Amino acid sequence: MSGPSNVLCHQPPPKRWTNAGTLSPSGSGGRYTRTRTPRDPYGTVASSTRTAASRGSAPTSSAIAATYAAFIRLRRSGTLRPVSGGRNEGAVWSQSRMTGSIGMSLLNESKHFDSADIIGAMTGREVTIYDVAQRAQVSISTVSLALNQPGRVKQPTLDRVLTAADELGFIPKVRAVMQARRGLGRIAAVAPFSSYPSFSRRLAGVMAELGDSGTQLLVSDCEDIAVADSPVLASIPVRGHVDGLLNLGVPMDEKIGERLKNRLPTILLDVRYPGLPTIGVDFREGGRQIGRHLHEFGHRSIIFVKEVERYQFDSPPNLTLAGLRDVLGIEAVHEVIVARGTNAGREGVAAVLGDADLAGLVTAFVGSRDLVAIGAATELRRRGLDVPGDFSVVGVDDDPVAEALGLTTLRHPYEESGRLAVRALRTLLEDPAAPVGDQRLGLELIPRETTAPVSP
């Protein structure tokens, strides 16, 4: 059986042919480079060849065809097997023969190719979990764990596995079978439900809209979105166990955003990523409503208490703060950032009242969410101060506890946004080419007993 001695796979394709020449036996040290041709019917590899003394000419069509055909024969014969080489060295393949071997060194200046690249690109065979494991340099069990229980895998390893799956276009076997049918009849919803109880209201809207349609809803809780990545969100588009995804408010980096955009119909809520439809709430206008309300009561120096956020993005707290400053001015609204948790509001008040300059100016506190505002009001009263006589307090969300405590707040349309998200995702699933645009909902200021005019 004849075949090339070495194959050098290269991507992206070079602007010109390099190391070109004629096919040479393995003993010559010849190597091969690849480029893509616009009319390549296979969408695969066109190889040029060289010897140590021959360079510069473009390969002939017969050489290209011979290279491709030789590799196909090797693969179909079942005698081509990986023998050595790591990701940094190039994976070496060899055909065992009575008279010697044919090695194919997969080398590249910019990107290394291994067995999965050749399998997927040249033979058309379905990429398997074994290929992903080889690409990521992990065990089969680690790949399985990364796809099914991502929270149990260290973040660097998880990133490596998911990146390998992306690069290879890996589709789990169950998903491949179901794609031949009309879909799984299952969607996923992801949010930090345990960290933010208000997200359960959005989930209630999702469930109400699904009703008895027969669509299964897979609910996944993720860690606090401000302080940790979401391994659950990262793995969902690769696992292939759902038809679509509702991201109910989890910020994403570019890697996750691209994975969702390319692999799974997705609707975002209160977060944005280019190319993915978003249902948002106009928090900036909500901040303006709070600002106008406090301004009418004579407040001119405001504290905005916000919990620390890991991601620098247009988060609801950041937009609310911007709206407050639109009305009251940048100098009039002081931002206080505190640790996350039930004591956030208390800590914000303690920090402000411990600053003599601020304490003498401030007349109102605004919490980034109701729990923060309630904590602030509790701490003020614990210190013997009157709410709203000495300080007004405003929250955001209008959780049920806010009404019970008489807290002035912004009412968030959680349930409605959940319903709209399901409708938008259904549209995408029925017709992936359908124009599903962004939608924006408003907030409503609910005045209660924690705001009042500034005392003379």
How is this fold's topology laid out?
Layout: E1 32-35, E2 46-49, H1 61-77, E3 80-84, E4 92-96, E5 101-105, H2 115-123, H3 129-136, H4 140-148, H5 155-168, H6 173-179, E6 186-191, H7 199-210, E7 216-221, H8 231-239, E8 244-247, H9 254-263, E9 266-269, E10 278-281, H10 283-296, E11 302-307, H11 316-328, E12 333-338, H12 344-353, H13 356-359, E13 364-367, H14 370-382, E14 392-397, H15 400-405, E15 408-411, H16 414-430, E16 439-441, E17 444-446
Parallel strand pairs: 6-7, 6-8, 8-9, 9-10, 10-16, 11-12, 11-13, 13-14, 14-15
Antiparallel strand pairs: 1-2, 3-4, 4-5, 15-17
Helix pairs in contact: 3-4, 3-5, 4-5, 5-8, 7-16, 8-9, 10-11, 12-14
Structure write-up:
This protein is an alpha/beta fold and 456 residues long. It has three domains: 26-125, no CATH class; 140-280, Rossmann fold (3-Layer(aba) Sandwich), CATH 3.40.50; 283-413, Response regulator (Rossmann fold, 3-Layer(aba) Sandwich), CATH 3.40.50.2300. Helix content is 38%, strand content 17%. It has helices spanning 61-77, 115-123, 129-136, 140-148, 155-168, 173-179, 199-210, 231-239, 254-263, 283-296, 316-328, 344-353, 356-359, 370-382, 400-405, 414-430, and strands spanning 32-35, 46-49, 80-84, 92-96, 101-105, 186-191, 216-221, 244-247, 266-269, 278-281, 302-307, 333-338, 364-367, 392-397, 408-411, 439-441, 444-446. Strands 7-6-8-9-10-16 form a six-stranded parallel β-sheet, sandwiched between helices. Strands 12-11-13-14-15-17 form a six-stranded mixed β-sheet, sandwiched between helices. It has a three-stranded antiparallel β-sheet with strand order 3-4-5. Helix 4 (140-148) packs across helix 5, helix 5 (155-168) packs parallel to helix 8 (231-239) and helix 7 crosses helix 16. The protein is elongated and about 75 Å long. The chain starts with 31 loop residues before the first strand and ends in a 10-residue tail after the last strand.
